[in-house]
Amino acid sequence: MKALVLAAGLGTRLKPLTDTTPKALISVLGTPLIEILIKRLIANGCDEVVVNVHHFSLQIIDFLQQKEHFGISIHISDESEKLLDTGGAIKKAGRLFSDDTPFLVHNVDILHNLDLQAFYHQYAHQAEAILIVSQRDTQRYLLFNDKDELVGWTNIKTGEVKSPFEEVKANAAAYRRLAFSGIHIFSPSLLPEMDAWGDRFSIIDFYLQACASHRIIGVEKKDLHLVDVGKLDTLHAAESFLNAEM
Question: How many domains does the chain have?
Answer without folding.
Answer: 1
